[in-house]
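Action item from last week, closing it out:
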Amino acid sequence: MSTEVRVPTLGESVTEATVATWFKQPGDAVAVDEMLCELETDKVTVEVPSPAAGTLSEIVAPEGTTVGVDALLASIAGEGAAAAPAPKAASAPAAAPADSGGESVDVMVPTLGESVTEATVSTWFKQVGDSVAQDEMLCELETDKVSVEVPSPAAGVLTEILAPEGTTVDASAKLAVLGGAGASAAAPAAAPAAAPAASGGKDVENAPSANKLMAEKGIDPASVTGSGRDGRVMKGDVLAAMTAPAAPAATSAAPRAPVPADDAAREERVKMTRLRQTIAKRLKDSQNTAAMLTTYNEVDMSESMALRKEYKDLFEKKHGVRLGFMSFFTKACCHALKEVPEVNAEIDGTDIVYKNFVHMGIAAGTPTGLVVPVIRDADQMSFAEIEKAIAEKGKRARDGKLSMAEMQGGTFTISNGGVYGSLMSSPILNPPQSGILGMHKIQDRPMVVNGEIVIRPMMYLALSYDHRIVDGKGAVTFLVRVKEALEDPRRLLMDL
């Protein structure tokens, strides 16, 4: 009996990939979830795990082949299944003595999400010697974007932790070993020897498409940093090296000034989390890449507040969710983006990609840092659907349960600093998007209306935009349309 190995889902709008590297060859024994090959798309590198144990009998798509989603890559013969788990067999006798009645089970890093290749072990909930039930949480991993809980794949005893807290692990790493109910604590002694076997000792070779592109462009391979397995240079790495601006040496961080000993003793030094490092890098990259500019306006929130006050109870009773201001702003932005489509576009090389849909990113502060969950097709949603989506995404963000897919593909972002009391700020673009709207605190201020001074609830709005693609006229027009919709929310119902 044979098992087919097919191209997995490659991600939103990605329809094909190139086979970059085969880690196994026909005749090699493979274990379940052992990495067989690496695919390269326009955006990311995707590793293909083995769907079954057995022997790799045939490679249908050699290195350099372009394949579509669900295309056949290879076949695995089941007849060799007995020999397949060879890497684990070395530790099996020790992990499960004759009187234990159980076998050792490896705890592996779960799927981390598209383009995520490594994670940091943040917390172990169990220690060596602890009994665990199937699906009980063993540890928590932290990636660039989200926290991932690792459940126990089986019931047993945690006999060894291979990746202590603070360890950085790749997407195919082994985290720990579980033994049977009577497993010896010394059982996993042979486990470390099994881990290197997965790599197979194969020399690191660049992806064929990367070598071809470097040869065509005359790029020195030594100048390109590889993001693939074991530092392999992929096509995307070459493209990034071609488009990345040369950073002058002067941009390196200045050394920290000397600190008096009495002050140093009262300081606390904490390593930045991976999420915080990623936030810092992305925001700085945004400033370095985009020609970012911010335009401001203010909006009288009287009519929107009156409408919300009049219908909020009926709204919550019918839809089971509270009516907030985010749905008003989301709707207003969707209308404005239709009139000024360049704010909803992005730059790809020398092309402008206009999005005929709105995937709205809603920036949310969490205990671990800023994340931006995406509400897909927000322009097709009702007020109730938007409010439900925001509430659900917000809760998942605070609980650290957002998946990578839920934070990808946004076309425009709204950031509400007003919930923290911010009166005015300039939001930073969320690349590759070309626009982000900053909301602020609603504050009563004296305003002149029809020649009279009246007190009105006012909010400052800020639109940061990429001046490479959005002109000043378009940015100002966008913000004025948002202002008009909020000051007369009936326009939203009339699609004006």
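Closing note: Confidence is low (pLDDT under 50) at residues 79-101, 181-202, 247-251.
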